[in-house]
Amino acid sequence: MEQLRRRWRNALKTRGRLFLASIMALVLLSSGCAAHEPSDAPAEVIDAARAQSLISAWEEQVDGAAELGWTPCPDAPEFDCGRLEVPLNWSDPVGDTTRIAVRKLSPASDNAPVLLILPGGPGQSGTELLTDLFDAGAHPEVAEQYTLISLDPRGVTGLQAADLPLDCPTQAQECAPSEALSRFASTTDVALDIEHLRGAVNADQIRILGYSYGTYTGALYGTLFTDHVAYAVFDGAAVAIGFSPLGYERQAIAFEDALDRFLGACVVGELGSCPFTGDVAEAKAQLLQLRALLAQQPLLEDSGDTDGVIDGDTVTQHLLATFYGPRSGWAGTAGWLLEVQSASAEAQLRDTGQAGESDREEQGESHDADELSVPARLSHAVICAMPDAASSQDPEAGVEPLDGDDFFFVPDSATSADIDAAAHACASGLPAHLDTRIRAEDGRKYLVTSVLGDPATPYTDAATLADALGAFLLPVEGEGHTSVLGQSPCATQISMAFLANGELPAAGTTCAGSAS
């Protein structure tokens, strides 16, 4: 069971985490945990002309110099680690500065084009993503063609986080964005950092591969600095409306639909042993009952070196991680649920009560907070800077708010109210720099791809982004979140060909995803 448990915990650390992390951050916002004091300086929407003027002012301040100080990374010597100095406030180039963690993997050739890898989130590490994707010689056909680069966006704790100007009580894992930094950590600020990074690596143009929230970052960068984008692929597209209360409701429904498909496959025997019986509605009722039982009577798990708790939240997180991945992982989750169900039944028979609230306090939660949540201050800066941050759960906007005991992922009415309140909290303490709306002067620079069964960033979001950019939209059959350099060789091949020279597939092309 421990091996399966580690699998879902690791899955939540890569690319996704959008659903739970954003919900948690918004609820924190609505309770006042992340509100900023109002600033005397009004928030400013940064358009392309203003963005270029900010870059020019900073370059004049530093006399065009941008040193990264590349050295071999201690954790992975085949990669180089660097730090890029940028202004804390891009509107104040003579004020305080901060340093951004950057990581690269260089090919044998000296003049390879730059491919920038952008992580999901908000709150995920680019240095960690780059290492995960290309460690131990993975994807050599890509690593040999490009200088691969990624960065940790402002406020993110990554593999090189120790030098970032964060509040760090004891160690890097406990860092959180400071008040000063979080006011200047919007996606627009990150896009300005990327533009300075482009100059620092002496690239006239860059290619971009963005995942999840990284697609929004890349699209905004392209909106502000269109001439400096050669080609960009956006996988698992995230759009501004997707981070609003309306978007979270829509996303929760998508996870609910994925759960229905999982349970449907489970009860008809497609996943091997299934812990549930009956039709989908009956199976979901049994799952809800199991989660409620574990919430009241968690299981203690002794893995040999660590003790953990399997409770109702563990079941929810395991299923979230499952639906971030391809359908090929469904059978393993069905088996894990069967193990948990059997262990829970045995615990009830013993009626020992060993996993009560007092034991939960001694053993700790079943997941690590730094793995599952985005710091609330960072989310405030990122989400409240988006054009659609205050879009509420309005039935006239296309989705009627849902709540009820028959749903597993759809928030109850109390949580929905908290999320709505968080949106209105954006009216005060806005970040300094607000995002302009995504647009493109040349849609031929962009390819958007999405898995049709993706619950984290539903396919409709990919269609919305493709429309905004005038980009080619490549559907991928299957389940899970993202596919390039992952579950779909077809999407990977098409994306790499596009990044190389702008080559697009025939109209109407659909790729296969992971085999079931």
From TrEMBL:
GO molecular function, one term: hydrolase activity
Signal peptide span: 1-35
Segments forming domain AB hydrolase-1: 113-237
Region (Disordered) location: 347-372
Transmembrane domains' residue ranges: none
Keyword field: Hydrolase, Signal
InterPro entries documented for this protein: AB_hydrolase_1 (IPR000073), AB_hydrolase_fold (IPR029058), Pept_S33_TAP-like_C (IPR013595)
Cross-referenced PROSITE patterns: PROKAR_LIPOPROTEIN (PS51257)
Biased composition (Basic and acidic residues): 357-370
Record carries keyword rRNA processing: no
Gene3D superfamilies recorded: alpha/beta hydrolase
Peptidase S33 tripeptidyl aminopeptidase-like C-terminal domain boundaries: 440-511
Descriptive protein name: Alpha/beta fold hydrolase
